[in-house]
Write a structure and sequence with these properties.
This protein is α+β, with helices and mostly antiparallel strands and 255 residues long. The protein is built from 4 helices and 10 strands.
Length: 255
């Protein structure tokens, strides 16, 4: 698999339990669960977005809005279940000049860590829409919990799948509901593609890792195609249009 080594080499840093942490509690509802009752990955991605947004607002950051997700890595140790109450605990896992890594754990009420997630958020300038330095007050808020860890923004999944002899090309039709208030395909909608893979490979379950990287946003009116390779239930996938890669994904067993 083209992406496997890079995806599994990603370091999911441990919780420091120092500095700023934010916790939110929620229940897995009907619209978040599969017919078998496990939490879907696209719903999980929405949870991560929501707790991130809630944290920045409570923290009263000087610039809480102008951040975009570059990459999300999700390690599922055990899928949360329908109607289960869970806690989402989030903190800073590392800082860079123009970005920060947000770590989030989903924890059962009896203390079991069900999911680990790490999302790389890039700070952008609202006028130029280009990466800009993390504001000073945000750095001050996050430094202690980051433990001084530096993170980069280089993409992990850099291989081109269209050159693979066994790559399969299929359309990915977009719906009105895939777009958000920013005007492009919402980050959680990309995870529906990974969910389609899980639906077709029911023996791929926890413990598992899934990675979604965002390269160029998908705008209304575009018609992306999936370039995918599946081996031993693992998924390598690129979402492309006319040779332009919008995102790359990997999903497989967490070793």
């Amino acid at each position: 698999m083209a992406f496997r080594d890079a995806a599994l080499a990603f370091e999911m840093v441990a919780r420091t339990s120092v500095g700023r942490e934010f916790t939110a509690r929620r229940r897995v509802r009907l619209g978040d669960a599969t017919p078998n009752g496990r939490l879907r990955l696209d719903a999980l991605a929405r949870y991560l977005q929501d707790v991130s947004n809630d944290d920045t607002r409570v923290s009263e950051w000087s610039d809480p809005h102008w951040w975009v997700v570059r990459r999300t890595v999700i390690d599922v140790h055990e899928f949360p279940k329908y109607m289960e109450e869970i806690d989402l605990v989030t903190w800073c896992g590392g800082l860079g000049s123009h970005w920060a890594e947000r770590r989030t754990q989903i924890v059962s009420l009896d203390g079991r860590v069900l999911v680990d997630a790490a999302a790389l958020w890039v700070h952008i300038d609202q006028d130029t829409m280009q990466p800009s330095r993390v504001p000073h007050d945000v750095v001050e808020t996050l430094t202690e919990s980051s433990g001084g860890r530096d993170v980069g923004a280089r993409l992990l999944l850099r291989h081109k799948l269209f050159a693979e002899a066994n790559a399969r090309t299929t359309p990915w039709p977009l719906r009105f509901s895939d777009y958000d208030a920013v005007g492009h395909m919402n980050n959680a909608a990309y995870w529906e593609i990974v969910e389609e893979h899980l639906a077709e490979h029911r023996d791929l379950r926890a413990p598992m890792r899934a990675v979604v990287e965002h390269v160029i946003q998908v705008d209304p009116g575009q018609t992306p195609m999936r370039q995918s390779v599946v081996e031993n239930n693992e998924l390598d996938l690129e979402l492309t249009e006319n040779g332009t890669m919008h995102s790359a994904m990997w999903c497989g067993v967490l070793s």
